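Can't paste images in this forum, so I'm doing it all in text. The chain is below; anyone willing to post the predicted structure tokens underneath?
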Amino acid sequence: MTTERAAAVSDHVAINAEDLGVKYNLRLTKKQTLRASVVKRVKNRGETSFWALRHVSFQVRQGESLGVIGPNGAGKSTLLQVLAGILLPSEGMVEIDGHISSLLTLGVGFDQDLSGTDNIRLAGAFMGIDHRLIEDRLPWIVEYADLGDFIDAPIKVYSSGMRARLGFAIATSVEPDILLLDEVLSTGDAAFRAKSKQRVGELVREAKAIVLVTHDMNWVTEYCNRAMLIEKGEVILEGAPAEVVAMHQERSAKRAADKAAAGVLAGAKPLPLQAVKPVKAPRRR
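Text version of the structure:
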């Protein structure tokens, strides 16, 4: 963490999560909320519920950028949905102090038949932003998204990268107190990714709180103040980005090695009986 970013961190707590837990009922919500692999695993054990998060506690202060990393299915996106108010925790509590802007899934809230400009206004309404403020920020959003004439075309003709640029421009246009991002910086071309990282850096320097879920370890070590590793819904380590990333990579490598070894053993076939030659007993003299 650079001296500039360290100086920007304040004592004001923007996010406070204590003993947070999210429990899914597999009978009711497995199709909507859980990966098929997870459902299959717990179903085979006869379980009817699944803890996507358990005993998660952390704080994020103004000026901090927290990178949340971990393997697929660890509960990272579930955590962001709780912070955004989309999901209610099953246990524990979370306190948010400040205005939140989130970009968790590309295209959420977009009307496929409306133009990019009209979707900016629609997204602003969904986010609870005053109409006059959105109108004031509209030129900046259009310029930042850099969609050219496509800004007047229906969203349904946009590529995923174009949706990412528009969604990110909207989410960061109002300079929120808290910004939640879920893997959106990995979408789009190299120029957009560089520009989006620069924009998040500006928000951090302006004493905003950022929580970012990503698989880009370079982003975590270069731009985040802190990092948190989550596995199977629980916090494994929280601290300096380089230390947390190193542990994540070490544990990922071990899982890959264990999986490869298990695959080799599972794939080994015994020799057919006819291929095994009996060993003759030595003759006695």
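Confidence is low (pLDDT under 50) at residues 1-7, 29-34, 275-279. The chain has ten helices and nine strands.
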